[in-house]
Amino acid sequence: MADNGNTNDVPGYGRGTQGPSPGLRALDRLVGTWELSGDTRGTVTYEWMEGGFFLIQRIDLGEEAKGMEVIGHERPLGQEPSADIKSRFYSHTGDTLDYTYELRGDTLTIWFGERGSPAYYEGSLSEDGNVLKGAWHYPDGGGYEAISTRVR
What we know:
It is built from 1 helix and 10 strands. By secondary structure, it is mainly beta. It has one domain (10-150): Calycin beta-barrel core domain (Lipocalin, Beta Barrel), CATH 2.40.128.20. The chain has a 10-stranded antiparallel β-barrel. The chain is globular and about 45 Å long. The mean pLDDT is 91.
Protein backbone atom coordinates (compact mmCIF):
# COMPACT_ATOMS: atom_id res chain seq x y z
CA MET A 1 0.00 0.00 0.00
CA ALA A 2 1.36 3.41 -0.94
CA ASP A 3 1.80 5.91 1.89
CA ASN A 4 0.32 8.84 0.00
CA GLY A 5 -2.38 9.87 2.52
CA ASN A 6 -5.12 8.58 0.25
CA THR A 7 -7.72 6.61 2.23
CA ASN A 8 -8.84 4.95 -1.00
CA ASP A 9 -5.69 2.81 -0.66
CA VAL A 10 -6.90 1.37 2.68
CA PRO A 11 -8.65 -1.98 2.07
CA GLY A 12 -12.31 -1.78 3.06
CA TYR A 13 -12.39 2.00 3.63
CA GLY A 14 -15.70 3.55 2.54
CA ARG A 15 -17.17 0.29 1.28
CA GLY A 16 -19.63 -2.22 2.64
CA THR A 17 -22.84 -0.31 3.41
CA GLN A 18 -25.46 0.61 0.84
CA GLY A 19 -26.88 3.50 2.83
CA PRO A 20 -27.99 4.63 6.26
CA SER A 21 -30.23 2.16 8.12
CA PRO A 22 -33.99 2.75 8.48
CA GLY A 23 -33.48 3.06 12.26
CA LEU A 24 -30.96 5.83 11.77
CA ARG A 25 -33.05 7.57 9.10
CA ALA A 26 -35.98 7.60 11.56
CA LEU A 27 -33.97 10.15 13.58
CA ASP A 28 -34.56 12.58 10.70
CA ARG A 29 -37.57 13.68 12.77
CA LEU A 30 -35.12 15.36 15.16
CA VAL A 31 -33.42 17.55 12.51
CA GLY A 32 -33.80 21.22 13.35
CA THR A 33 -33.32 23.54 16.30
CA TRP A 34 -35.13 22.92 19.58
CA GLU A 35 -35.62 25.12 22.66
CA LEU A 36 -35.51 23.22 25.96
CA SER A 37 -37.77 23.88 28.92
CA GLY A 38 -38.94 21.99 31.98
CA ASP A 39 -36.17 21.32 34.49
CA THR A 40 -33.47 22.46 32.04
CA ARG A 41 -33.03 25.38 29.64
CA GLY A 42 -31.09 25.75 26.45
CA THR A 43 -30.91 24.95 22.76
CA VAL A 44 -30.26 21.74 20.87
CA THR A 45 -29.67 21.53 17.10
CA TYR A 46 -29.60 18.35 14.99
CA GLU A 47 -28.22 18.17 11.45
CA TRP A 48 -27.04 15.37 9.15
CA MET A 49 -23.39 15.03 8.34
CA GLU A 50 -22.77 14.75 4.59
CA GLY A 51 -23.59 11.20 3.46
CA GLY A 52 -26.38 10.75 6.02
CA PHE A 53 -24.56 8.14 8.13
CA PHE A 54 -24.19 10.41 11.18
CA LEU A 55 -26.52 12.84 12.90
CA ILE A 56 -24.71 15.72 14.63
CA GLN A 57 -26.26 17.24 17.74
CA ARG A 58 -25.00 20.56 19.12
CA ILE A 59 -26.00 21.30 22.70
CA ASP A 60 -25.96 24.59 24.60
CA LEU A 61 -27.44 24.41 28.10
CA GLY A 62 -25.44 27.40 29.29
CA GLU A 63 -22.98 26.71 32.09
CA GLU A 64 -24.60 23.30 32.73
CA ALA A 65 -23.44 21.70 29.48
CA LYS A 66 -22.17 22.58 26.02
CA GLY A 67 -20.91 20.21 23.41
CA MET A 68 -21.41 18.11 20.33
CA GLU A 69 -22.69 14.57 19.88
CA VAL A 70 -22.13 12.27 16.89
CA ILE A 71 -24.96 9.75 16.47
CA GLY A 72 -24.86 6.73 14.14
CA HIS A 73 -23.92 3.08 13.84
CA GLU A 74 -20.43 2.05 14.88
CA ARG A 75 -18.66 0.47 11.92
CA PRO A 76 -15.04 -0.52 12.38
CA LEU A 77 -13.07 -0.64 9.15
CA GLY A 78 -14.19 -3.51 6.92
CA GLN A 79 -16.90 -4.70 9.33
CA GLU A 80 -20.69 -4.56 9.42
CA PRO A 81 -22.42 -1.68 11.21
CA SER A 82 -23.47 -2.19 14.83
CA ALA A 83 -27.05 -3.29 15.42
CA ASP A 84 -27.68 -0.40 17.83
CA ILE A 85 -27.42 3.29 17.06
CA LYS A 86 -24.62 4.65 19.24
CA SER A 87 -23.35 8.10 20.03
CA ARG A 88 -20.49 9.87 21.68
CA PHE A 89 -20.93 13.27 23.30
CA TYR A 90 -17.95 15.62 23.53
CA SER A 91 -18.37 18.25 26.26
CA HIS A 92 -16.86 21.69 26.71
CA THR A 93 -15.17 20.32 29.84
CA GLY A 94 -13.32 17.57 27.93
CA ASP A 95 -15.59 14.68 28.98
CA THR A 96 -16.83 12.07 26.52
CA LEU A 97 -20.10 10.26 27.19
CA ASP A 98 -21.53 7.30 25.25
CA TYR A 99 -25.22 6.69 24.57
CA THR A 100 -27.50 4.29 22.66
CA TYR A 101 -30.48 5.67 20.70
CA GLU A 102 -33.79 4.20 19.56
CA LEU A 103 -36.82 5.90 18.00
CA ARG A 104 -39.74 3.50 17.90
CA GLY A 105 -42.95 5.09 16.65
CA ASP A 106 -43.17 8.41 18.48
CA THR A 107 -41.08 7.26 21.47
CA LEU A 108 -37.43 8.27 21.70
CA THR A 109 -35.28 6.33 24.15
CA ILE A 110 -31.67 7.26 24.89
CA TRP A 111 -29.74 5.00 27.24
CA PHE A 112 -26.58 6.20 28.97
CA GLY A 113 -24.04 3.66 27.76
CA GLU A 114 -25.63 0.44 26.52
CA ARG A 115 -29.23 -0.45 25.72
CA GLY A 116 -31.08 -1.35 28.90
CA SER A 117 -29.00 0.93 31.14
CA PRO A 118 -30.84 2.07 34.30
CA ALA A 119 -29.92 5.67 33.34
CA TYR A 120 -32.05 6.65 30.35
CA TYR A 121 -34.21 9.29 28.67
CA GLU A 122 -37.65 8.46 27.38
CA GLY A 123 -39.77 10.98 25.53
CA SER A 124 -42.68 11.18 23.12
CA LEU A 125 -42.93 13.27 19.98
CA SER A 126 -46.19 15.16 19.47
CA GLU A 127 -48.41 14.26 16.53
CA ASP A 128 -47.04 17.18 14.48
CA GLY A 129 -43.45 16.30 15.50
CA ASN A 130 -42.73 19.75 16.94
CA VAL A 131 -42.68 18.90 20.66
CA LEU A 132 -40.63 16.19 22.38
CA LYS A 133 -41.69 15.74 26.00
CA GLY A 134 -39.88 13.36 28.29
CA ALA A 135 -37.53 12.88 31.20
CA TRP A 136 -34.14 11.51 32.17
CA HIS A 137 -34.37 8.72 34.75
CA TYR A 138 -31.46 7.78 37.02
CA PRO A 139 -30.92 4.56 39.02
CA ASP A 140 -30.98 6.44 42.34
CA GLY A 141 -34.49 7.70 41.58
CA GLY A 142 -33.30 11.10 40.37
CA GLY A 143 -33.71 12.65 36.96
CA TYR A 144 -35.30 15.66 35.32
CA GLU A 145 -38.05 16.61 32.89
CA ALA A 146 -37.07 18.02 29.51
CA ILE A 147 -39.50 19.51 27.02
CA SER A 148 -38.07 20.29 23.58
CA THR A 149 -40.00 22.57 21.23
CA ARG A 150 -38.91 22.90 17.60
CA VAL A 151 -38.17 26.52 16.68
CA ARG A 152 -36.62 25.87 13.21
